[in-house]
């Protein structure tokens, strides 16, 4: 059966983002306590972190491409 998409509250998202800023990987008891604190399952927290790492990598790739394009423009002028 298909899983229902979790809608995170603004407070939950804020807490998850702050935790992600501290560490991009969360496992074991830290994940358990964060999930308990937020009223989520460990799986929901785990998947949120997985998806957030993908978003972070994509943003960094996009930023690097932008910087490379800007430096190419400067060097060709």
Shape: elongated
The assigned structural class equals: mainly alpha
| Major beta-sheet overview | none
The end-to-end span amounts to 58 Å
Domain Homeobox: 1-59
Keywords: Developmental protein, DNA-binding, Homeobox, Nucleus, Repressor, Transcription, Transcription regulation
Subcellular location: Nucleus
GO cellular component, one term: nucleus
Question: What this model shows, in words?
Answer:
It is a single chain. By secondary structure, the protein is mainly α. It has a domain at 13-53: Homeodomain-like (Arc Repressor Mutant, subunit A, Orthogonal Bundle), CATH 1.10.10. It has helices spanning 10-22, 28-38, 42-76. The longest helix has 35 residues, at 42-76. InterPro entries: EMX-VAX-Noto_Homeobox_TFs, HD, HD_metazoa, Homeobox_CS, Homeodomain-like_sf, HTH_motif. Residues 3-60 bind DNA.
Note the main attributes of this structure.
DNA-binding; DNA binding; EMX-VAX-Noto_Homeobox_TFs; developmental protein; 77 residues; 77% helix; Homeodomain-like_sf; Arc Repressor Mutant, subunit A; mainly alpha; 3 helices
Summary of the model, kept short:
This protein has 77 residues and is mostly helical. It has 3 helices and no strands.
Fold blueprint:
Elements: H1 10-22, H2 28-38, H3 42-76
Helix pairs in contact: 2-3
Subcellular location: Nucleus
Domain Homeobox: 1-59
Protein name: Homeobox domain-containing protein
């Amino acid at each position: 059966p298909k899983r229902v998409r979790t809608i995170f509250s603004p407070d939950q998202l804020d807490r998850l983002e702050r935790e992600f800023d501290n560490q991009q990987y969360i496992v074991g008891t830290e994940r358990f306590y964060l999930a308990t604190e937020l009223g989520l399952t460990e799986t929901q927290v785990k998947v949120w972190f997985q998806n957030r790492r993908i978003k972070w990598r994509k943003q960094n790739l996009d930023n690097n491409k932008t910087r490379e394009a800007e430096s190419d423009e400067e060097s060709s002028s």
